[in-house]
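Subject — a protein and its fold
Encoding — discrete vocabulary of local shapes:
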Amino acid sequence: MRSMTGFGRGTATAGNAQIVVELKSVNHRFLEIRTRLPGELGGVEIALEKQIRKRLERGYCNVHVSVEQNEVSAYTINTAKLSRYIDMIRETAQTRALPAEYLMLILSNAPDLYESNLFAADDDMQDACLRATRQAIDKLLEMRTVEGANMETDLQERLQQIRKMVDDIDALSSNFERSIFEKYRQKIADILAEHHTPDVKRVETEAAIIAEKADVTEELTRLRSHTEQMRATFRSDGAIGRRLDFLVQEMGREANTIASKSALADVTHIIVDIKGELEKIRELVQNVE
């Protein structure tokens, strides 16, 4: 089981440049990827997304790519232009009778003398970007797996609580069905006695029908089954979040049916507690991949 929340950071170098890729993901119904890359690396966006889709199945994933370079080696001097500038300065110094050293200060402001090596988006940089992406995905999945394990521990405990409460309802309901049968059998017999001699078989049949409507055995059986299915799903590979969400919904329906059938206050109180646990489980599984 993996969470959909996580963070991963990867780095790789190409020449004097370092590519940094950061991935942040949160829960989402499907897999949605949003990327922010320098314009010079725009050509690698499709390959980058393809890598992510191979490893992730669900989640809203933000991808931020940046290029960091050593400022010392980030610029070079155009030596041909520098030679021409020096010749021009010396000629001007001789013509105007000015110190050449003074005019040399102009070179520091020459806009076309320095050439930037920043964001040299070549094949090496794109390969480095993909390497950094793989590293970031590894870190992201590592974090999502750890959080998923913690979530599974919490879910297992809550399912255990629900299973115990289901057993408590079963114990209460087993005696309740017989008592409700006797209650309605006597009530129906009294009504029929006012008009004629009661038909014992009819009385018992009517009472049995009423008692059967209050029987929650099937609902309890399905609740137990759903808890076991959830536990089995935890051990499944791939994305399991949607199946877990479906099972939680089904468990909620069974709990509502039991509440509508049972007239016991103790059962009603237990159902309230079960629905409280289910709501907490629903919040957790919505963040399961």
Residues 123-193 form the longest helix (71 residues). The chain has a mean pLDDT of 83. The radius of gyration is 37 Å. The chain has eight helices and six strands.
